[in-house]
Amino acid sequence: MGLFDNVPALLVDPAAWIALATLILMEVVLGIDNLIFISIMTNKLPEERRAVARRTGIGLAVVLRLALLGSIAWIVQLTTPLFSVMEHPFSGRDLVLIAGGLFLVWKATVEIHHKVDPQPSSDILNVRSATPTFAAVIVQVLILDVVFSIDSVITAVGMTDHIEIMVTAVVVAVIVMLIAAGPLAEFIDRNPTVVMLALSFLLMIGMTLIAEGTGFHVPKGYIYAAMAFSIFVEVLNIWARNTRRKRTAEA
Asked: Where are the domains of the chain?
């Protein structure tokens, strides 16, 4: 039996369409975190290399997701407890989430320190003033791709038993990411204050990953509601700044 032999039956199954729409929405939402990180990191490169870096980062994300979907048996085993600490079991997924969360917290802290320090020191949080290399940016994006890909695929496996629906949802979500990547990166680049807001999001997401990995479930609705409110406030700030500029120009 082929991988997509069930496609004709799924095309006429309303439940399959509902599952697909729900999973696509979930994959797009989970991809927002990844997309923010990719946008911030690629904006550190020379302008002529940013688009290539964004496409490469998102391309790696889809390759990882599809590869993980091809090894669902291994993915399912990631939720099996490996050991316990103080009677709390830790699985392979938990360890990946904790490692990714720690990396994200470290990276966001480094970037925030670099943004707010007018005279960067030589301490461990110092970011070199030299423009990072293309390879260095891609490696950092790849690390987070692994974390978000595993979380994304585990979510897909938990929502449907049909590999066809999983693959379709992942591909559609990545297409949305490709379309949104350019405008998002340009918006962040045009509005420096948005960079700090985005770094704050990454810090919050990193702490959430660590919490999830250690057994403290944080409802995603709370996270995205906080992000939405912060974005709304920042939009008002940008609107106010633009209004002041227009009045100054007209005066």
From this structure: 7-218
